[in-house]
Amino acid sequence: MASLCAVTLRHGGATGPIHLVGALRPAEPAAEPHERLTPTLSDDASLPVSARVRARIQRARHRFHANDNISAFLKPGELEALLDEVEEKMRGVLESLVIDTVSDHNTQDTAAASRRCT
Description:
- The chain has 118 residues and is α+β, with helices and mostly antiparallel strands.
- Helix content is 32%, strand content 17%.
């Protein structure tokens, strides 16, 4: 479909309209930084389950913000694997915060409690 664009240019004090006629199409959207890092094999078992699911969502060009439902992108068994991954990472976060999760009754079972948030 041809479109008509009118552009006004200023050059050396002279102003005049220039009419451009031609087929115009929208520019391709630039890839988001996280899309450029998308793993190429979303089913590669050597990748963490979170990376595989993220790759599927990105390939489908869907949003995955904090409150978005990503269940349509999970394969059978991946929810349990994702919960295992989160529990392991939460243990690492607590250790990095130098918290005694063995003796501190406030943090005992905190990493595992992340599994109950589903």
